[in-house]
Write a structure and sequence with these properties.
By secondary structure, the chain is α+β, with helices and mostly antiparallel strands. Helices cover 30% and strands 37% of the residues. The protein has three domains: 121 residues, Beta Barrel (conserved putative lor/sdh protein from methanococcus maripaludis s2 fold); 90 residues, Beta Barrel (Elongation Factor Tu (Ef-tu), domain 3); 138 residues, OB fold (Dihydrolipoamide Acetyltransferase, E2P). Helix 1 packs antiparallel against helix 5. The longest helix has 36 residues.
Length: 361
């Protein structure tokens, strides 16, 4: 009978050390009485004022996403990228044949040369007539005609210069470049295909800047507008504060929900456009019990802390809420004023030695 009792005590001590017991009922835990000062530091749980939040699922989308369209006509000569390829700003994505565009440049340059010659001739004629008019050998009407021819020739020259610039732009349009770094999501044309201005060519998006769109019930919109503060909650519990909360001023007539957009800072989140994510919106103030994450004991699905009360140490299961930095909200299992072991490893070792001494007696 004595041996059975000693084995039961050892089993309870082992379960306490490794946190494998279902410790929701504190009476089922092994409770040890400390003799003298405890060999580990303790901390006292006290309520802190914190923001009250409500969480909804949102959809991640890229801020920079676009479909590039043809700005000139031609035939597709080369497609340098494919779907899922990463491109940098300014990288060549697609090339057209430029036979017509090069011909247009030559025509524009020839027209510019002719306009330059006409302008020079009109300028010379104007100077000659002006000198003769100064000697009062020609009439004022002849001077006015020379002036008009000079101004018209200059305007024609400016028009020809603009035509050359436009022709050069048409040649530039035969090479399509990436407007920003990102991922190619869709290709709308094939090599050899003839395209016209305005025809879609390539679609893509940038992963550098993301945002979240959330549908919010109308009953919560007043609080969200008042506080205008939210954060994205990642799968590992980390939070990314939104740079801006944009509330659209109208509701969907079918779902009666408002669209709210969270502008996110540039950060490595592992999120991709199209994914869902949890967005926490501030809707008021409340008090929370917070404990350092370093004070938690995690074993399988059990989360607990070592509670110190009247010189006795016990392992107590708790239920957690959201994480805020290095602290975690406690929803159940603790009350204000409870003392915890700041170092759960040291507390576990202490209990193990205490049970070993009791078992040896």
């Amino acid at each position: 009978m004595q041996m059975r009792t000693r084995l039961s005590a050892l089993a309870l001590a082992s379960a306490l050390l490794f946190g494998l017991t279902a410790c929701g009922d504190e009476s089922k835990l092994t409770v040890a009485k400390a003799t003298g000062e405890l060999p580990f530091a303790t901390l006292t749980v006290s309520p802190v004022s914190a923001q009250r939040e409500r969480i909804w699922d949102g959809v991640i989308e890229a801020v920079n996403q676009a479909t590039l369209s043809a700005q000139t006509g031609g035939r597709v000569r080369e497609i340098a990228v494919d779907v899922n390829d990463y491109v940098k700003t300014g990288d060549v994505i697609l090339r057209f044949t430029d036979v017509e565009q090069q011909s247009g440049i030559r025509q524009a340059q020839a027209a510019l040369a002719a306009a330059k010659a006409a302008m020079d001739e009109a300028e010379s004629d104007f100077k000659r007539v002006s000198e003769i008019f100064g000697r009062q050998l020609v009439s004022k009407a002849q001077l006015d005609q020379a002036t008009a021819r000079r101004d018209a020739a200059k305007a024609q020259h400016d028009s020809a210069k603009a035509a050359v610039r436009a022709a050069n732009e048409q040649v530039d349009y035969t090479v399509v470049r990436a407007p920003y770094s990102g991922i190619v999501t869709e290709r709308h044309v094939e090599v050899g295909e003839a395209v016209n201005p305005g025809q879609p060519l390539i679609s893509g998006l940038s992963l550098d800047k993301l945002r979240v769109n959330v549908q919010i019930p109308q009953s919560d919109m007043a609080a969200i507008r008042e506080h205008a503060k939210a954060a994205l909650v990642l799968a590992d519990g980390k939070r990314i504060d939104a740079e801006q909360v944009i509330v659209f001023p109208y509701a969907d007539a079918t779902t009666h929900t408002f669209s709210v957009r969270l502008e996110l800072p540039q950060a490595e989140t592992g999120l991709q456009p199209g994914m869902t994510a949890k967005a926490a919106f501030v809707i008021g103030e409340s008090e929370r019990l917070m404990v350092p994450e370093s004070a938690l004991v995690r074993r399988s699905e059990v989360t607990a802390v070592y509670v110190v009360s009247d010189g006795r140490v016990s392992l107590r299961q708790i239920r957690l809420g959201h994480r805020f930095g290095n602290e975690v909200e406690v929803l159940a299992g603790l009350a204000a004023g409870d003392a915890l072991a700041a170092d759960p490893v040291a507390a576990g070792v202490y209990l193990s030695r205490l049970h070993a001494q009791e078992s040896a007696q």
